[in-house]
Amino acid sequence: MRILIVTAGSRGDVAPFTGLGRRLLDAGHEVAVAAHPSFAALVGGCGLGFRPVPGDPEALIRDWARAASRAEARASTRVYVDGLADGVADAVAGGTDLVLTPFGPGPLSRTVGEAYGVPVVGTYLVPAFATGAFPLPGAPDTDDLGPEGNRAAGRAVLSRADGLFADAVTRLRTRFGLPADAPPVRGDDAPVFHGFSPLVVPRPDDWPSRARVTGYWWPARPERWEPPADLVDFLGAGPPPVFIGFGSMAPGHGERLGALVAGAVRRAGVRAVVQAGWAGLTGGDRTDDVLTVGDVPHDWLFPRTAAVVHHAGAGTTGAGLRAGVPAVPVPVMADQLFWASRLHRLGVASRPLPFGELTAESLGAAITECLSEPSHRRRAAELAHGIAAEDGAAEVLGHLSRRRRR
After folding, report:
1. Do 17 and 150 sit in the same domain of this protein?
2. Among residues 332, 338, 339, which one has the least CA distance to residue 318?
3. By C-alpha distance, which of 225, 218, 217 is closest to 45?
């Protein structure tokens, strides 16, 4: 079967699908990933086909930060979504028997799938059905609002998501001559698989039967990857360091953040591996206690650390849990507040430190607190043991196998 995985956004929105894609490839399927051009090497390096989708998510995040008003931010987003819509249409037109789509571009994927008569299956990285159990990621409040309050917050998140893509969906339906009275853009019947652990977010009882929680889809490690020699030497030269990285957040703020991180490391009295990310983060002036690195597979690096300081994106959150190390979550926006809160409630992390409140003093204190609380590491090890027993891709593979036999 020819399978096309459509995704959009930052590295954390792409990397898990390299792992799921590899499992599909190994099961005999032909697999391609449609993503932004900057991820061609990541996808191709894992042995998967690649189809480019217009858009520069790093530039979009920078535009959001620079926007003088909400209207200006919305205008930048509209341009991005319009390009994404055309890219999804072109990617599906390239030929496929099935589309897998995460929540973000889901309305576009389902519209184009309808146009080409191609079935579309949801493969979500975040919870995306309103529930009484918790407010959905993207809600302004991560506190339990009670069943009705949680459902209302979830419906508001889904409504905003629908509104974000509404104009692009209308344009695609006109382009393909589809009826204007479109079905719900989230779909009503197709299964949706959620690629995170039920130990981290248990499946709510009030979700529809088609919404399933499978376990994580771990990113594939690029073929022939080897760790940099200076990183291996650094890890061997002293006690396990703390990892510090903010992924796709704060592009262009590397110098300011670097000085802050260096100060925090000194205050906490730890060694640190600092990942540059889109911010271009550094550890300040080079010292024997700090090493700055580029892209390094988290599944290799995190188990060699004492704790991980990160922005609480879905992928990095999962990687830290898999490694069994405690965390200092520093959420910036969107679903990161949800995952940061979840880590704290699971007992594997200190209280979230919002990015806007980040100082050398506050970060240094959070690192010290995280490392000095034995229960964080103990609970992280317990969760890692349970997560290791899960096979997140198996349920997706089983569904596709049943489709083949029909």
Report:
1. yes
2. 339
3. 225
Structural domain that includes position 382? 229-388
Q: Radius of gyration over alpha carbons of the chain, in Å?
A: 21
Residue for token pair 């060694």 = 271
pLDDT value of residue 341: 94
Q: Half-sphere exposure of 99 toward its Cβ, with a 13 Å CA cutoff?
A: 32
Provide the 3-class DSSP secondary structure of residue 193.
Answer: strand
Task: Summarize pLDDT for 347-365 with one digit per residue, the tens.
Answer: 999 899 988 888 999 999 9
* Token reading at 253: 């703020």
CATH number at residue 187: 3.40.50.2000
Q: Could you tell me if 401 and 347 lie in one domain?
A: no
Phi then psi for residue 114, to 5 deg, are -60, -40
Segments of 115-170 assigned E as strands: 120-124
Q: How far is CA 320 from CA 124, 218, 360, in A?
A: 19, 12, 22
Q: In terms of residues, how long is the chain?
A: 406
Both structure tokens of 292:
């700055």
| Domain match, 241 and 116 both | no
Together in a domain, 55 and 141: yes
Is pLDDT at 402 greater than 90 in this prediction? no
The HSE-up count of residue 95 (CA atoms within 13 Å, CB side) is: 4
